[in-house]
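Sequence decides. Our protein:
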Amino acid sequence: MKSILMVHGITDTGNVFNSMKSYFQDKGYTIYTIDLIPNFGTADLRDLAQQVKLYIDSKFNSEEKIILLGFSMGGLVTRYYLQRLNGLEKVDQYISISAPNNGTNLAYFVPLKGILQMRPYSKFLQDLNQDVKETLGKIKCLTLWTPFDTMIIPAKSSLLNLGKEVRVPVLIHKWMLSDNRVFLKIDSFLNI
């Protein structure tokens, strides 16, 4: 069975995935999580993506393809890894959950480096979005989002207009990681 690396969002650690981790371990997947440091918006997202690269390079052999999952800020960190750090060579399937792929208006309220990069039309996002179809289009992608997201504003900013995009009406941003409907959508995607 395949390995899944789960990458958390701002102010979180890998423990935020405990429910999801248990679900997919029961399905036979080997689950890995990483604790990004620092995790509260002060670091450049490109530096956090380097942490993901180092983790993957140290944990998996060069021929092994993994499933990569990014939640919230972790969605942007994983995208940078995939699109700019040759991550496409190591990843077979990509899952983005409630990530500010086109920015979030909440990022206008906190002037920290990583949060500034999450603003709509930031240079960081413009760079990633200019060739998203040419890069991420090379692998199987699933984007999960909720219309009730109060962290990603507007909620549709999570959409990549690429791969499979699924709306799951979960009431709170972080609940996307513990909702059985999300687990079922991921499970279905992984078994296509």
Residues 72 and 99 are 4 Å apart (CA to CA).
